[in-house]
Amino acid sequence: MSFLSSALCLRSLPLTRPALALALAQSACRWSVRPTPGPPFCRLPSIRSISTYPPSWAAALLKRNPQFKSLDWTDVQAFRTILPSPGGVLTSIRDPTNPDATTSSSSSASVSADQLDSQEALQAYNTDWLKLYRGQAPVVLFPETTAHVAAILRYCQEHRLAVVPQGGNTCVTGASVPVFDELILNLAKLNRVRQFDPVGGVLVSDAGCILQNLEAYVEPRGFTMPLDLAAKGSCQIGGNVATNAGGVHFLKYGSLHGSVLGLEVVLPSGEVMDLLSTLRKDSTGYDLKQLFIGAEGTLGVITGVALQTAPFLPVAVLLGLNSYKQALDTYALAQKHIYQNLSAFEFWDRECFNYLLESGANAPSEPFASTYPYYILVESSSSDEDQNQESLSKFLDILLQNKLMGDGTISFDQSQFNRLWAYRESIPSAVLRHPSLAYDLTLDYPHFYQVVEVLRDRLRQMGLYDGYKGRGNVQAIAGLGHFGDGNIHVCVVAKDLNKEVFEAVEPFIYEWAAERGGSISAEHGLGILKAPYLHYTRSEVVIRTMRQIKTVFDPHGIMNPYKVLT
Ligand SMILES: Cc1cc2nc3c(=O)[nH]c(=O)nc-3n(C[C@H](O)[C@H](O)[C@H](O)COP(=O)(O)OP(=O)(O)OC[C@H]3O[C@@H](n4cnc5c(N)ncnc54)[C@H](O)[C@@H]3O)c2cc1C
């Protein structure tokens, strides 16, 4: 397991908090203020072996589009001309006149010569994070400049080569890996910060910059990135934009549709579409950059991103709750009393938490003396420290007066803040390292957690689920998510992730959400996993218009085929 320096995980936090100390002193018997254990979450580990069962019938039934050319040695030579630097081209295709020659340009610092020589290196890029999908791309390209991307796409369109843009490969819908033998265009080497405006807080960077590295860049300058997610140690800002990622700070900073000020995009034709504005206001015709936000690489390759960052001084509180009703009431009070300082309101249930607490030697311990069925992490942040403390103190007092939580703990310093967040951020990996199906729904509050209960009842009746790690094949039906955004992730963990489990859950869960006006994909996109279910949340007219837009930008359909629109 490789981790980046833990220093990159640190966030700025003032050390003295008199107002909070007062609130805690007044209620010391109800609060556990001891430091909470657990490492901060950093670079994502690789988690499990390839599933034996295809998670989507549609994926299993897809056929390769015969209009796409298969990659061969001539293409490899052309790519080596475009990317002459060491490590620019990774391929298993051999020179037919000299089949024993090395399979790569040469070694590089980030990818060793041994790796480059091995099929294993190609497999890593061909396999998605959940290890549910594996493509067979014989070529991965690592451009370092926008001009490289432009030359590659121009070549690919001319020769009808299908392309999968790839960022950190952390998406959970299969969108970032080939379905068949599409070329992988990995943006990892396009990773420079281009400029930062310390007055306006506008950051312009290459698309391949890792989110956590950008956070480490802006944080000492007194700012934070407008998005934060548990995959931050691996995902790239270009991938975040391409998936319209949400994450834990969506509540305060909103969608990337708002915080992305500009984009630089290379179209399949090789033309560079310069939309890289740093202006907050620009009302001059169609706002084309919005089309690339959430397009999952189906319209073009994002090479540059201009983002509005924000000032940030946060405090976090972890609460153990006895009922879902308490979560609803706590959220209503947080909105009222923390109001615009409320920067995260995260939720998870006991089944999720168990997976983290039972995750081995390095697992954190229980945060409280008692266990609870629900947990909430509330974060308050502001550039005005006094105002931040005041509103949080008031909020905590009111929670105590109303007996709205079983227990709670608060961060007094940076390391406690990181440790509280490590609980939340480590849960997805802890759960999803087991064979599981994961869903990403937006539901209104009456239905937010009901979906978990309904699914438990359904699978119990079918004899598949008998409680957490019970006798049923399904070992857990767990819920966690961005409560403040109405976004719940439902995880169905099974001993044997077989057809019976799959058919018990899908399409039932999508239909259930659609009937209640929910979204079948809140923030993860559609990829290949959910492309067949688009009609549950988009009308025929909308889907037809999406297809027309796709044709305008990508007339030969070479960009990330088989994804989003099937
Ligand atoms: C543990 C864990 C926690 C997560 N938590 C969250 C969360 O809280 N919120 C959330 O929204 N997501 C979350 N995700 C999902 C994932 O991290 C996000 O979707 C992320 O934005 C993907 O970024 P990436 O760089 O890894 O992109 P990839 O996975 O490499 O690619 C994702 C899609 O974007 C396209 N793409 C990538 N780069 C570019 C580019 N430069 N130009 C054009 N297209 C491109 C790909 O073709 C693909 O379609 C989580 C994932 C994990 C594993």
TrEMBL record:
Residues 1-21 form the signal peptide. Its cofactor is FAD. It comes from the Eukaryota. One of its GO terms (cellular component) is mitochondrion. GO terms for molecular function: D-lactate dehydrogenase (cytochrome) activity; FAD binding. Belongs to the FAD-binding oxidoreductase/transferase type 4 family. This is FAD-binding PCMH-type domain-containing protein. It comes from Dimargaris cristalligena. The lineage of its organism: Eukaryota, Fungi, Fungi incertae sedis, Zoopagomycota, Kickxellomycotina.
